[in-house]
Write a structure and sequence with these properties.
alpha+beta, Hypothetical upf0131 protein ytfp, 6-stranded mixed β-sheet, 8-stranded mixed β-sheet, Nucleoside Triphosphate Pyrophosphohydrolase, 3 domains
């Protein structure tokens, strides 16, 4: 059996239990220090890395007598993300330590478990659970390229946990009214599709029969309709979309609000501002929440956080944009609110969330104009 020195996020009891599948007894864990090393935040990220530093001592936990099953679970969580094992000594005793590959990341300031626990653990618990759910299905080295979407899906679960949905008309029901009998991951690429067998509470109070359903599991997104109160104009973006193409639409280029995925650790507001800059170069003065919606609740888990963004929209605000790294090809249009309504009526605007945002803007226009 091995002894493993845990210096970073795995010092968090909740994460260690998730990764190992159980909580080791206290007798197997002892506080320890690895001399000549320090633990720092990886620059540009929230996670820690360990590196040599003369005169320093990395604090951690020495997990003793790690058996083969525990070692496999630790390797699954660590080795696929640019770490490898080194054998060192603590107090003359051989220990294994997960080190980052040389040159992969740059060390920033000292990493804080307390800060990570407060800021990152609330959503990392969901990504860790998803990662460990793949231990018998996905090799560790195949996890890294999937991780951005794993983390985004986890963050969406966290955002959902913060919400208290109203139920003044619909039944006041919750997860206890759904009995999930079986869940299977049918596809796991950049996106994920799950197949369920379940029963749920019916409107007459009884339980349904067993239902088989599939769902496309994706991340939350932030959507923004830029609006200039001074000119009464809005900005729309145009781009090619796969959905209309797959349906057989004769013109798969659509008019949309600015939109993008909410990344792990990001607020919907921060994502909205980032997407405005990335897609159009537009710096929003202020964001006004305009509700939220599930675009296709029968088949997709995505939730849209909607905003109207107050901004200056001069004649030269429209143009081409998007990130080359994401192969985006986006054209922005600045039109009057009246023209936008005409496009809705003609069917040229055929994207539901944009219609919803335009209707919301019409209802609240007077208040927004007065506020500006």
């Amino acid at each position: 059996m091995d002894h493993v020195f845990l210096y970073g996020t795995l010092r968090h009891a909740g994460l260690l239990e998730l990764v190992l599948g159980h909580m080791p007894p206290e007798a197997r864990m002892q506080a320890a220090k690895l001399e000549g090393h320090a633990v720092s935040r990886a620059r540009g990220h929230g996670f820690p890395l360990i590196h040599k530093r003369e005169g320093a001592a990395a604090e951690g936990i020495l997990l003793r007598d790690v058996d083969a099953a525990e070692r496999a679970r630790l390797d699954h969580y660590e080795l696929g993300f640019g770490y490898h094992l080194q054998e060192l000594e603590i107090a003359g005793e051989p220990v294994l330590v997960y080190f980052p590959e040389a040159g992969l990341w740059e060390a920033a300031e000292p990493w804080s478990l307390e800060q990570w626990s407060a800021q990152d653990w609330p959503h990392v618990q969901y990504s860790a659970a998803e990662i460990m759910g793949y231990i018998d299905h996905v090799a560790a080295h195949d996890l890294a390229w999937r991780f951005p979407m794993i983390a985004a899906r986890a963050h969406s679960k966290y955002l959902a946990s913060l919400e208290t949905p109203p139920d003044t008309l619909r039944a006041a029901r919750g997860a206890t009214d759904v009995d999930v009998l079986e869940r299977e991951v049918m596809h796991l690429g950049f996106f994920r599709t799950d197949a369920y067998k379940l029963q749920h509470r019916r409107h007459d109070g009884s339980m349904s029969g067993t239902l088989q359903r599939e769902v496309f599991v994706a991340a939350d997104a932030a959507l923004v309709l830029p609006y200039d109160p001074a000119s009464g104009r809005v900005m729309l973006v145009e781009q090619f979309r796969m959905g209309p193409l797959a349906r057989g639409d004769k013109n798969p280029w659509v008019l949309e609000p600015i939109a993008g995925r909410i990344d792990a650790g990001e607020t919907p507001e921060a994502a909205a501002r980032r997407e405005c800059l990335e897609e159009t170069g537009l710096d929003i003065r202020s964001l006004v929440p305009a509700g939220g919606c599930y675009p296709s609740p029968g088949e997709v888990s995505t939730y849209f956080h909607l905003f109207v963004g107050l901004a200056d929209l001069p004649d030269n605000a429209a143009g081409l944009g998007g990130l080359e790294t994401e192969q985006e090809d986006i054209k922005s249009h600045v039109v009057s609110l009246t023209r936008a309504q005409e496009l809705v009526e003609s069917g040229e605007i055929n994207i539901g969330p944009l219609v919803q945002l335009l209707q919301w803007l019409l209802l609240h226009k007077s208040a927004l104009d007065a506020r500006a």
